[in-house]
Specification:
By secondary structure, the chain is α/β, with parallel strands linked by helices. The protein contains six helices and 15 strands.
Length: 228
Amino acid sequence: MRLKTIIIDDEFLAQQLMETYVKKMSEIHLLKIFGKSKEAFEYMATHPVDLLITDIQMPQINGIDLVNNLSPKPLVIFTTANPQYAVQAFELNVIDFVVKPISYERFENAVSRAVRQFQLVHANAASIEGPFITVKADYKDIKVFLHEIVYMEGWGEYIKIITDTDTIITLHSLKKMEELLPIDLFRRIHKSYIVSLRKVKSHNLSEVVMINKAVVPMGKNFRQDFDF
Protein backbone atom coordinates (compact mmCIF):
# COMPACT_ATOMS: atom_id res chain seq x y z
CA MET A 1 0.00 0.00 0.00
CA ARG A 2 1.39 3.42 -1.00
CA LEU A 3 0.98 6.38 1.34
CA LYS A 4 -1.17 9.16 -0.09
CA THR A 5 1.03 12.19 0.49
CA ILE A 6 0.93 15.97 0.15
CA ILE A 7 3.76 18.47 0.50
CA ILE A 8 3.36 22.03 1.78
CA ASP A 9 6.15 24.58 1.38
CA ASP A 10 6.02 28.21 0.33
CA GLU A 11 9.50 27.99 -1.24
CA PHE A 12 9.44 26.82 -4.86
CA LEU A 13 12.96 25.36 -4.77
CA ALA A 14 12.07 23.35 -1.65
CA GLN A 15 8.97 22.05 -3.41
CA GLN A 16 11.02 20.93 -6.40
CA LEU A 17 13.65 19.25 -4.22
CA MET A 18 11.13 17.25 -2.18
CA GLU A 19 9.15 16.32 -5.29
CA THR A 20 12.36 14.90 -6.78
CA TYR A 21 13.04 12.96 -3.58
CA VAL A 22 9.49 11.58 -3.31
CA LYS A 23 9.48 10.36 -6.90
CA LYS A 24 12.36 8.04 -6.01
CA MET A 25 10.27 6.32 -3.33
CA SER A 26 7.96 3.52 -4.41
CA GLU A 27 6.03 3.59 -1.11
CA ILE A 28 4.76 7.14 -1.70
CA HIS A 29 1.92 8.37 -3.90
CA LEU A 30 2.26 12.16 -4.19
CA LEU A 31 -1.21 13.69 -4.47
CA LYS A 32 -0.41 17.42 -4.58
CA ILE A 33 2.11 20.09 -3.66
CA PHE A 34 0.88 23.28 -2.03
CA GLY A 35 2.57 26.64 -1.59
CA LYS A 36 -0.14 27.88 0.81
CA SER A 37 -1.14 26.08 3.97
CA LYS A 38 -4.75 27.33 3.84
CA GLU A 39 -5.29 25.66 0.45
CA ALA A 40 -3.78 22.43 1.80
CA PHE A 41 -6.03 22.57 4.85
CA GLU A 42 -9.11 22.90 2.64
CA TYR A 43 -7.91 20.05 0.43
CA MET A 44 -7.45 17.70 3.39
CA ALA A 45 -11.00 18.40 4.55
CA THR A 46 -12.30 16.45 1.56
CA HIS A 47 -9.38 14.21 0.53
CA PRO A 48 -7.88 11.45 2.70
CA VAL A 49 -4.16 11.95 3.26
CA ASP A 50 -1.86 9.38 4.89
CA LEU A 51 1.30 11.49 5.11
CA LEU A 52 1.73 15.26 5.38
CA ILE A 53 5.19 16.74 4.73
CA THR A 54 5.03 20.39 5.69
CA ASP A 55 7.21 23.39 6.40
CA ILE A 56 6.57 25.18 9.69
CA GLN A 57 7.24 28.84 8.91
CA MET A 58 4.57 29.80 6.38
CA PRO A 59 2.14 32.68 5.80
CA GLN A 60 -1.57 32.29 6.64
CA ILE A 61 -1.28 29.23 8.89
CA ASN A 62 2.05 27.95 10.21
CA GLY A 63 2.72 24.23 10.13
CA ILE A 64 2.22 23.67 13.86
CA ASP A 65 -1.16 25.41 13.94
CA LEU A 66 -2.17 23.54 10.79
CA VAL A 67 -1.44 20.14 12.33
CA ASN A 68 -3.16 21.14 15.58
CA ASN A 69 -6.35 21.87 13.66
CA LEU A 70 -6.43 18.72 11.55
CA SER A 71 -8.92 16.01 12.40
CA PRO A 72 -8.20 13.24 11.76
CA LYS A 73 -4.45 13.82 11.75
CA PRO A 74 -2.29 12.11 9.12
CA LEU A 75 1.28 11.07 9.79
CA VAL A 76 3.36 14.25 9.80
CA ILE A 77 6.94 15.13 8.90
CA PHE A 78 7.95 18.71 9.64
CA THR A 79 10.61 20.43 7.54
CA THR A 80 12.10 23.76 8.63
CA ALA A 81 15.18 25.92 8.50
CA ASN A 82 14.71 26.81 12.17
CA PRO A 83 15.41 24.03 14.72
CA GLN A 84 13.88 26.09 17.56
CA TYR A 85 10.51 24.51 16.77
CA ALA A 86 11.72 21.01 17.69
CA VAL A 87 10.07 20.91 21.11
CA GLN A 88 6.67 22.08 19.81
CA ALA A 89 6.84 19.64 16.94
CA PHE A 90 7.86 16.78 19.20
CA GLU A 91 4.87 17.40 21.48
CA LEU A 92 2.56 16.82 18.49
CA ASN A 93 3.90 13.25 18.15
CA VAL A 94 5.02 13.85 14.58
CA ILE A 95 7.01 11.18 12.78
CA ASP A 96 10.08 13.35 12.26
CA PHE A 97 11.47 16.88 12.34
CA VAL A 98 13.90 17.54 9.49
CA VAL A 99 16.11 20.62 9.44
CA LYS A 100 16.89 22.28 6.10
CA PRO A 101 18.94 21.96 3.94
CA ILE A 102 17.63 18.43 3.52
CA SER A 103 19.74 15.66 2.02
CA TYR A 104 18.08 12.76 0.22
CA GLU A 105 19.37 10.33 2.85
CA ARG A 106 17.81 12.32 5.71
CA PHE A 107 14.54 12.73 3.83
CA GLU A 108 14.42 9.04 2.94
CA ASN A 109 15.01 8.12 6.58
CA ALA A 110 12.09 10.29 7.71
CA VAL A 111 9.74 8.87 5.08
CA SER A 112 10.82 5.32 5.92
CA ARG A 113 9.78 5.95 9.51
CA ALA A 114 6.38 7.10 8.32
CA VAL A 115 6.01 4.00 6.14
CA ARG A 116 6.88 1.68 9.03
CA GLN A 117 4.46 3.46 11.35
CA PHE A 118 1.69 3.28 8.75
CA GLN A 119 2.29 -0.43 8.20
CA LEU A 120 2.38 -1.08 11.94
CA VAL A 121 -0.91 0.71 12.58
CA HIS A 122 -2.71 -0.94 9.68
CA ALA A 123 -1.31 -4.38 10.39
CA ASN A 124 -2.84 -4.18 13.86
CA ALA A 125 -6.01 -2.31 12.94
CA ALA A 126 -8.15 -5.33 13.80
CA SER A 127 -6.61 -5.67 17.25
CA ILE A 128 -8.19 -3.67 20.05
CA GLU A 129 -5.22 -4.27 22.32
CA GLY A 130 -2.64 -3.28 19.73
CA PRO A 131 0.95 -4.53 19.17
CA PHE A 132 2.96 -5.96 22.04
CA ILE A 133 6.24 -7.59 23.03
CA THR A 134 6.60 -10.66 25.22
CA VAL A 135 9.22 -10.75 27.98
CA LYS A 136 10.07 -13.23 30.72
CA ALA A 137 9.68 -12.10 34.33
CA ASP A 138 8.92 -13.98 37.56
CA TYR A 139 9.30 -17.31 35.71
CA LYS A 140 6.51 -16.55 33.23
CA ASP A 141 5.90 -14.87 29.89
CA ILE A 142 4.40 -11.40 30.17
CA LYS A 143 2.71 -9.55 27.33
CA VAL A 144 3.69 -5.84 27.35
CA PHE A 145 1.66 -3.62 25.03
CA LEU A 146 3.71 -0.98 23.22
CA HIS A 147 1.17 1.78 23.86
CA GLU A 148 1.56 1.23 27.64
CA ILE A 149 5.38 1.51 27.76
CA VAL A 150 6.72 4.82 29.12
CA TYR A 151 10.44 4.06 29.07
CA MET A 152 13.04 1.32 29.58
CA GLU A 153 16.14 1.43 31.74
CA GLY A 154 19.13 -0.87 31.35
CA TRP A 155 20.39 -2.54 34.54
CA GLY A 156 23.46 -4.48 33.47
CA GLU A 157 22.07 -7.73 32.03
CA TYR A 158 18.52 -6.72 32.97
CA ILE A 159 16.01 -4.18 31.73
CA LYS A 160 13.45 -2.33 33.81
CA ILE A 161 10.31 -1.62 31.77
CA ILE A 162 8.15 1.17 33.17
CA THR A 163 4.59 1.12 31.87
CA ASP A 164 1.55 3.25 32.65
CA THR A 165 0.60 0.92 35.50
CA ASP A 166 3.52 -1.38 36.30
CA THR A 167 7.30 -1.94 36.48
CA ILE A 168 8.67 -5.13 34.92
CA ILE A 169 12.24 -6.39 35.31
CA THR A 170 13.42 -8.87 32.70
CA LEU A 171 16.70 -10.46 31.62
CA HIS A 172 17.36 -8.76 28.31
CA SER A 173 19.83 -6.59 26.38
CA LEU A 174 18.87 -2.94 25.87
CA LYS A 175 20.61 -3.02 22.49
CA LYS A 176 18.53 -6.00 21.33
CA MET A 177 15.40 -4.34 22.66
CA GLU A 178 16.25 -1.21 20.67
CA GLU A 179 16.49 -3.34 17.51
CA LEU A 180 13.18 -5.02 18.31
CA LEU A 181 11.11 -1.88 18.98
CA PRO A 182 9.76 0.23 16.08
CA ILE A 183 11.94 3.33 15.64
CA ASP A 184 8.86 5.42 14.90
CA LEU A 185 7.57 4.85 18.43
CA PHE A 186 10.70 4.44 20.57
CA ARG A 187 14.07 6.16 20.70
CA ARG A 188 17.36 5.36 22.45
CA ILE A 189 18.35 8.61 24.18
CA HIS A 190 21.10 7.34 26.50
CA LYS A 191 23.27 4.24 26.81
CA SER A 192 20.91 3.10 29.57
CA TYR A 193 17.52 4.42 28.41
CA ILE A 194 14.92 3.98 25.68
CA VAL A 195 11.82 6.20 25.77
CA SER A 196 8.41 6.01 24.16
CA LEU A 197 8.05 9.07 21.92
CA ARG A 198 4.33 9.13 22.67
CA LYS A 199 5.00 9.44 26.39
CA VAL A 200 7.43 12.38 26.26
CA LYS A 201 6.11 15.56 27.88
CA SER A 202 9.12 17.83 27.25
CA HIS A 203 12.86 17.70 26.71
CA ASN A 204 16.02 19.79 26.48
CA LEU A 205 19.66 19.10 25.69
CA SER A 206 20.32 17.09 28.86
CA GLU A 207 17.08 15.40 29.89
CA VAL A 208 13.66 14.17 28.86
CA VAL A 209 10.58 14.52 31.06
CA MET A 210 8.01 11.77 30.64
CA ILE A 211 4.26 12.04 31.17
CA ASN A 212 4.58 10.14 34.46
CA LYS A 213 6.97 12.93 35.61
CA ALA A 214 10.04 10.69 35.44
CA VAL A 215 13.18 12.57 34.33
CA VAL A 216 15.40 10.57 31.97
CA PRO A 217 18.94 11.74 31.09
CA MET A 218 19.81 12.59 27.49
CA GLY A 219 23.19 11.32 26.33
CA LYS A 220 25.32 13.59 24.13
CA ASN A 221 25.79 10.90 21.51
CA PHE A 222 22.03 10.45 21.11
CA ARG A 223 20.91 14.07 20.65
CA GLN A 224 21.10 13.92 16.86
CA ASP A 225 18.01 11.71 16.74
CA PHE A 226 16.07 14.60 18.24
CA ASP A 227 17.31 16.98 15.53
CA PHE A 228 18.90 19.56 17.80
